[in-house]
Amino acid sequence: MAPSGHAVNETGNGFIDGTHSALLRHVHDIREQCVDGSPRAAVIPCFDAFVGEMTVHFGHEELILRASGFAGWEEHAEQHQTLGRQVGRLVDYLRECDVSREFLCTVAGTLDHALSQHEIKHDGAYAALLRASPAPEQGADLIAWTPGFETGVEPIDAQHRELAGLVNELHRLAAGVHDRAEAMVLLERVGHHVRAHFDAEERVMRAASPARCVSHAASHTQMLGQFDAMCGQVASGVVPLEVAVRDFLRFWLMDHILVCDRPHFLVMGLVRPPEAVV
Length: 278
Ligand SMILES: [Fe+2]
Ligand SMILES: [Fe+2]
Ligand SMILES: [Fe+2]
Ligand SMILES: [Fe+2]
Fold this sequence. Notes:
Distance between the termini: 48 Å
CATH topology of the largest domain: Four Helix Bundle (Hemerythrin (Met), subunit A)
Oligomer: single chain
Mean pLDDT: 90
Shape: globular
Bound molecules: fe (ii) ion
């Protein structure tokens, strides 16, 4: 049972479930602040932070769904957009108008209800798929490299293989009870490697097609934001590192290679077409 009293089913993905719980705790805290009579000026930043946290969650969830092969991920992303617009309008109104304490309480209750309903009704639509895709067995690689990951540009493929290897190593370290500090250092190292990789990839793309490089660099910026947000959630205890690696980071890297990189390299003629991949 969530803190707000709404029963929200688990989706089978620990990262999504952890961030769902954190969001519901957050909105519950805001409701309590409003009921306790906190001044509007003190509560508004909390509403803003909640909207930011919800937006980050939506982006993470959409990426996991896309990388998991959920056919309805685009429709789900539209539901996120609608909910995000509705919530954003409400919070804008609070910021711009001198509303009463009762109205603040009403808005907090509305956000709680809207979010819970989304998690119960819409997020429930993909739960069966995620529950049916088991995590790798203990000791097995989290990301098993296959030729289907290759872009055909050897330096880029080498970096992708290295990143997959680091994520696999991080998965093993994070699962160990005594290796947390070491695992956190490795997570930071993964972040450095990711940044260096994105820079290298943009140099290759810019040389081949400056126009395409602009949109690709924008997707790198978005992915870095998602990676950094995940690190923040781990650091603040919202999600354990082991869960973040297993249920978010592996999808993040697969999405980067298969959804972001391969189609762009293919269009630029730098990648073998899928039928040529053995
Ligand atoms: Fe969600
Ligand atoms: Fe959702
Ligand atoms: Fe890449
Ligand atoms: Fe890329």
